[in-house]
Amino acid sequence: MADKETIQQKKEHAKLLYTKDGVTTQKGLAARVGVCEKTIGKWIKDENWDKLKTSLIITKAEELGRLYEQLREMNDFIQLKEKGQRFANSKEADAMAKLTTAIRKMETEVSAAEAIETLKALINLVMPESLEEAKVITRWADVYIKTLLK
């Protein structure tokens, strides 16, 4: 059992290095955590670390800002049209509807990065009181995060 825990700890360490600290070479990760490069490659692929890394880099607020900016520019463009023609044509209306839907979806759904931060805070809260319960929460948190990344 200790061996399995050690491997899991190495995997978590490698994941943090890859997603948050910018160590992206398999060789570099393997050397830092003490496993072979092939194992690192398998972890990256099987657990979709690239998608996780992307979700951590681009924050929800930044992406929402970009969507709002696009919507604002479309509205500004329409306002520059001649009086009596200041309405969206079918393509513009479709694009605006899609932007609005994307904004609504982003404002109401939880991103993987937000879920990870919340779950880490919960685990850190529970850990001093009960290491065993923190381990259980961690296992379920990993399952939940994997479903978000699919």
Keywords for this entry:
mainly alpha; 150 residues; single chain; 0% strand; 3 domains
Q: What report would you give on this structure?
A:
- The longest helix is centred in the middle third of the chain and has 20 residues, at 60-79.
- 7% of the residues are buried.
- The chain folds into 3 domains: 1-57; 58-108; 110-150.
- The chain is elongated and about 75 Å long.
- The protein starts with a helix and ends with a helix.
- It contains 8 helices and no strands.
- The chain has 150 residues and is mainly alpha-helical.
Summarize the structure.
It contains 8 helices and no strands. The chain has helices at 2-19, 26-33, 37-46, 49-57, 60-79, 90-108, 112-126, 131-149.
Give the helices and strands, then pairings:
Layout: H1 2-19, H2 26-33, H3 37-46, H4 49-57, H5 60-79, H6 90-108, H7 112-126, H8 131-149
Helix pairs in contact: 1-2, 2-3, 5-6, 7-8
The total count of helices amounts to 8
* Overall pLDDT level: 87
What structural category arises from helix and sheet content?
mainly alpha
Count of the separate structural domains: 3
End-to-end separation in angstroms reads 29 Å
- Report the radius of gyration as a whole number of Å: 22 Å
Helix amount, in percent?
over 70%
Assembly state (oligomeric): single chain
The tally of beta strands, per DSSP, is 0
SSE order, one letter for each helix or strand: HHHHHHHH
What's the main sheet like?
A: none
Low-pLDDT sequence parts: none
The general outline is: elongated
Query: Proportion of β residues?
Result: under 5%
